[in-house]
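Usage example:
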Amino acid sequence: MARPQEFNTAEALRQAMDTFWQKGYEATSMADLLKAMGLSKSSLYAAFGGKRELFLAAFDAYREERGREMQQILAQGPARDAIEQFFRKIIADAGDGGAPSRGCMSINQAVELAPRDPEVRSRISRDFAGMEALFTQAIARGQMDGSIGNSDEARNLARLLVLAFPGLQVMVRADGDREQLNQTLNLLLSTLD
Amino acid sequence: MARPQEFNTAEALRQAMDTFWQKGYEATSMADLLKAMGLSKSSLYAAFGGKRELFLAAFDAYREERGREMQQILAQGPARDAIEQFFRKIIADAGDGGAPSRGCMSINQAVELAPRDPEVRSRISRDFAGMEALFTQAIARGQMDGSIGNSDEARNLARLLVLAFPGLQVMVRADGDREQLNQTLNLLLSTLD
DNA sequence: GGTATTATGAACCAATCGGTCCATAAGTCA
DNA sequence: TGACTTATGGACCGATTGGTTCATAATACC
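Running the assembly step on the lines above writes:
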C-alpha cells in the first residue's frame, strides 16, 4: 500500500527485552529504549504503544522464549542429567566478562513489579506453575528411567527445584561466586538421588 | 545550643527504610519519602544528604536489624528447630492482609541495584557471607546436639540454605502460596536429617 | 507520473524528577 | 531580654520523565 517499515519489529522488540532485562522497568527510560531499539519516538509509539505496553510485550517474548528453552533442555538425555544441565547453564550464562549478569527477567520482575502490578504478578505465577510442571514431568521420567533414585512424589521434589531456581538466579545477578554456586548445586541435585 | 530537631532521626530513618523496602529504590520518589518520614525537604537533606545517601543509611539499618534478628532466632533451642523457625517466619511474615509482601530488602536490592552499584553489591555479598556463617555455626551445633543427622560438612549444608533463602524471599514477594511454600520447606529441611 | 497512504524525525508538552537556597520561626544560653 | 544558633517551610532550579503532534519524506498502486 504505502511506505514500508524500516525496522524489523521482532528484532526491535528483542532489543527492548534486553534493556528491560538488564536494567529493570523503572531504571529504563524511553531514551534508553530508543537508543537500544534504534528507532524514533513516533515509530516506537506507533508500533508498540507506551512504555508499559512495550514492556509487557518484551516480557512475554522473554517468557515464551525461555519456556521453550527450558522444555528443550529438560527433554534431552536422562532426566537427572537434563535437570543438572538446566541449573549449570544458569551459572554458566552469567556474563564471563566484567559485565553484570542479568539473571532471569521473570525473577527480576517478581521482585520489582509483581508486588504492585497484578498483570505482572499473574504472569509470574504462571511462570512458576509452568516450571513446576516441567520439573515434575522430568522428575517422573527420571524415576522411571532410573536416573533419579528419590521416590518422593515428583511434584514435591519439583517444588524444591522451583524454590532453588529464584535463589540461584538472584545470586547470579548479585555476582555470586560461580564456583561456589556450582558446588552448592551438587548438594541440591544430590537430593534427587 | 539552639533550636532542637522536631523529629526523631532514628524513627524517620525507619520510615524511609519501610518505603524503600516496599517500593525499591527507583520507584521511590523524594516526595514519597517526605510524606512517609513526615518532614520537610530541607530537614531531610540536612539530616540525611541526598536520596542515595538516605537509601544507604536505611539499607544499613535494615541489614543490621535483620542480622541481629537472625542471630537471635538461630540461637534458640535445638539447632534444627531454630533453623526451621527461621524459615517458617519468612512465610508467616508475609502480609496476611491483601497488602503485598515486602520480602527481604537485601534480596530485593540484589536484583535491583546490585548489578550496577558496587557499594550495594558489596553489602549484599557481606549479607550472604554473614548468613552462611550463621547457618554454618547453627548446623555445626545441630550436628553436636544431635538435632541434625546429616554429617556432610556444615558449610556445604549452610550454602544450600543460603541458596534457598533468596528463593523463598522472592516467592513470598511475588505472592506465592504460603501453604505450598511451607510444604516445600519440609523437603528442604529434611535434607538436614 | 500522479495520488493516496504511511513511516519517520523533530519540535513541543506538562508533569515530575532530585536538589538548592533563603527568609523566617523557634528555640538555647548568657 | 537580647544575641546567637539552628531547624523549618516554601519558592525556585534545570534536567529529565513519558507522551503527543505535525509537517515531511518515502513508498506502493494505478
